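Progress report, Aim 2. The chain analyzed during this reporting quarter is listed below.
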Amino acid sequence: MGRGLTSYKPAIMGVTHAVSAGHYHAATAGFRILEEGGNAIDAGVASGIAINVVFPQWTSFGGVAPIILYHADKNETITISGLGRWPRAASIEFFEREHAGDLPDGILRTVTPSAADAWLTALELYGTMSFEQIVTPALELADSGFPVPSLLSQYIGDGIRWPSTRDVFMPNGSIPKVGDVLVQKDLANTFYRMIEVERAASSKGREAAIGAVRDFFYKGDLAKEMVRFCQDQGGLLTMEDMSSFRVKLEPAQWGSYKGIDVATCGPWCQGPLLIQFLHMLEGFDFQSMGYLSADYIHTMLEVFKLAFSDRHHYYGDPEFVEVPIDGLMSKAFAKSRLAAIDHQIANPEMPVPGNPWAFQSETPSVSTIARPTATTGSLGEDTSYTCVVDRWGNVFSATPSDTFDATPIVPGLGFILSSRGSQSWLDPSHPSALAPGKRPRLTPNPALAFKNGRPWMPFGTPGGDIQCQAMAEMFVNIVEFGMDPQQAIEEPRFATSSYPGSFWPHAYHPGLVTLEGRIDPSTVAELERRGHNVEIWDEWDVKAGNLAAIEIDHERGILRAGADSRREGYAIAR
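Predicted structure tokens for the chain:
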């Protein structure tokens, strides 16, 4: 039952529709579309593209955007991969020969831009509105500008190395102050050009017109401008890479926690990691441990380490590697992993992986990944999130990403080309090793939970390798302790770093645990006694993620939405 907790702001409740997003302008963009009669997919795409405008330090229209959605009329749950592929000219041998085995910052990390295709595919197949209608809120934010919030000012101030990016965000050579209006004319012009293509094709019908917009981006003038810039900068992207690219519609991966079904994207991202967490956590009595006690946090951290080891050894693009996904998603496999936990002593490093092959029928492939060694580096903080529920029962959940400091903005277009190549390995034995046409293993991973076969809660967060940890902690807060989404989001967070991080050069900090400063000092001391190497975050730390969720209460016919204050999250409902 609930702990009688209060929150700093209430859960936002409604009976008609709701949106919760990583930025208030993205929330209002989605809500505007809902109020105009659009469905959750229309609103989700509008919110996602608005995020691309107002969170350029963490997302891009040329970046990534994995999506999971539920369409009520079709009774269908589907994922849209929203992840680009390495150019055909890219290879491990190329980077060994030309860059001494390094994956250098900038244009060489470019994979095909996929967010635009993900947004357009969702809109074409599951939406009801035109591209012009849903892009208008984002277009207005880019064309007329919006006041710069503190986090954007800070990230611009931390240093933008690329001249074309400075031209957009420091047009006068100075860092914009909080409240200065940021205008992105090139991005607005890109949207105008796409709208013109759609208008010209409107006589062919809504879906065909959206398809024409997509072709303009991936086969037409926009594609040519992207490829020309990439190659001028020494990148590998070609028109063939662009014209042959399509996001994939795939079935979701499914797991459950105490009768609640959870759907994620596939092992080309880290989404199934959340299911592994929940399958292992299901076996513990957290009520008796005491909320945020040393036993509680220790147990979660040790579970996280086990699943991260499996992620490191098995997750990758299933088109290129054999992923034992049935075994990884097996509850019997989850139960077998729990024997490795010592409830009084922390594992000082990433544990050895489990053997998921023993829990499915396929013959195992041999993995020869070397044990990782400690490597310095920081956590990735980019990415945002948005989710929507509409009056007809449709649900949308998406995690757009890609940052403006990773690679230069394309002059005249106003967005970067996805730098998600940074989440590949140059070790050919690794399941996420770089290969031509292969998708890197992505950190962004939206989720959608169901009760009794009906959608119950879309949820997600930014935060790199922190994402699934924060999502699991929020989920347990709601299910085990009766919190509403806002309370569950506001509770203090903790995370382990006992795994090679997803971003090049794959930082590995064995034994490191980070906790927000609101966690009781006596609990921290006990965790240290058990062998955890503890570092304390700020009380409300941007690195801890920025969760958003909408809970659907079918019995009472209401929606409860929560949004994180660690960044600029906001929820609206009617």
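The first helix runs from residue 24 to 35. The chain is about 35% helix and 15% strand. These observations will guide the mutagenesis work planned for the next reporting period.
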